[in-house]
Amino acid sequence: MEPLPTAFLLVVAGVLMGLSALLSRASGRFGLPVAMLFLGIGMAAGVDGPGGIEFSNYAAAFRLGTVALVLILFDGGLNTPLAAIQSAIRPASLLATVGVVATAAFMGIAAHWLFQFSWPVALLLGAIVSSTDAAAVFSVLRGSGIHLKRRVGTTLELESGLNDPMAVILTVTLTQNLVHGEGLSWGVLLEVVVQMAVGGGMGLAIGWMGRQLLKRLPLQAAGLYPVMTLALAFLAFGVPTLLHGSGFLAVYAVGVMMGNETLRYRTGLLRVHDALAWLAQVAMFLVLGLLVFPRQLIGVAWLGLGLGLFLAFVARPLAVLLCLLPFRFPAREILYTGWVGLRGAVPIILATYPVLARAPGAHVLFNIVFFIVVVNGFIPGATVPWVTRKLGLAANVPAPPPAVLEIASTQLLNGELSAFYIDEASAAAGARISELPFPPESAAMLIVRGQELLAPKGDTVLQARDHVYVFSHSEDLPFLRLMFGQREDE
């Protein structure tokens, strides 16, 4: 009787999530993708592992995965600069539509011709694994210390935020085809257009209303601002979905609009949503790992391995090549984009849909998809840092400072705090603070030098590799960029 079952549930959740957080350091040290670590812990806790937890609620996993993806996509949008989107929106959009269809087709052909799947099952399998995963892409590109050149990194992140509608529509349609014998028609393309238009339009509308609301109506406490942005994220998914639009696209659009606006309590909002995204990722992969019975994977191992390798080496690179050639991407950027087509939670969540629809062979299909995701997590997932260096696509950016100075305010202030890195070639390197022509309303607030925090004074000499925090009004930022260089968050 209560509260013992609840206490037991919380103990289990606490142990699993704590292990995931503690072992994440080891995953980075040994090149193990963090998502694969969370999946592995979930599998170990399952009925076939030492944990012995029996969990087979596909509906609950589907709902949890959807909520987790909403949180992850919203956080990804908050951290995506609008200027970067403008340079990558066209190739990313083509990858998110034509690229998804091409990947699904190539995988379907391989499953039918090489592994003797029937056409309906083969095409459904291709559709399920056709889209890249926002959680995997964001965690690898942002959470592993990789500083990728902006156009390539933004293209990959935008693609992962935009390609879910196409994969969902293909999966639902092909599942219905498998269950009811309904054939494919050109109406699928119309449905894609409608979903993208409704999702994008509603996302922009909700994002605009959210920006106006947070700017004009101050809330009573700082802790209520994350509550409001979380409400906007949930509305951004729910309203367009009820109107037959893409909720995932709308969530990402709202995140981008909110992240590129001066908001009250902005630094606190970014910190809270970053934590929520990590919490969502851990919980999602743990639950998806619990769904899997490792003994059932043995029978589909050779199928999953073969199809996983075909996806990494053939299907994804060919689809990317077709999509990026018109934009004259350099060969190394096409190769990189084709290689870093990371799969994660989205295909596993999509694979639960045929199970819930009681499609024939759905459980076997789920196990195959899970195995493909695991293969993709290691090839190419574990090789991303090495490939980035080999292809020369790492951006030359300074390491982040060990200390960060921020302004957290629930009021809209006429001023902001900017961080600048003093490069060896910078005109400010070797200069005294008193010698620098700061605008009248600007001042250096803090210098981070290695492990030291220095209070800037007139005779303080700036050295190469210093991180300098400067308070200024917005209109003075262009002059400060001329003096110090680009801000660290740009």
Question: How is the secondary structure organized here?
Answer:
Elements: H1 4-29, H2 34-45, H3 58-78, H4 82-113, H5 119-128, H6 134-143, H7 150-162, H8 164-180, H9 187-216, H10 224-242, H11 247-259, H12 266-291, H13 294-297, H14 301-324, H15 331-339, H16 345-356, H17 362-378, H18 384-390, E1 416-421, E2 443-449, E3 452-454, E4 467-472, H19 477-484
Antiparallel strand pairs: 1-4, 2-3, 2-4
Structure description:
By secondary structure, this protein is mostly helical. It contains 19 helices and 4 strands. The protein has helices at residues 4-29, 34-45, 58-78, 82-113, 119-128, 134-143, 150-162, 164-180, 187-216, 224-242, 247-259, 266-291, 294-297, 301-324, 331-339, 345-356, 362-378, 384-390, 477-484, and strands spanning 416-421, 443-449, 452-454, 467-472. Strands 1-4-2-3 form a 4-stranded antiparallel sheet, with helices on one face. Strand 2 (443-449) and strand 3 form a beta hairpin. It is globular. The mean pLDDT is 88.
Question: Key features?
Answer:
490 residues, globular
- Strand content of the residues, in percent? under 5%
Radius of gyration: 24 Å
Number of strands: 4
Distance between the termini: 55 Å
User: How helical, in percent, are the residues?
Assistant: 55-70%
Return the structural class. mainly alpha
Give the neighbour order of strands across the main sheet: 1-4-2-3
Q: Helix segment count?
A: 19
Uncertain runs with pLDDT below 50, 5 residues or more?
none
**What global shape is seen?**
globular
Overall pLDDT confidence: 88
Element order: H for helix, E for strand: HHHHHHHHHHHHHHHHHHEEEEH
Characterize the biggest β-sheet: 4 strands, antiparallel
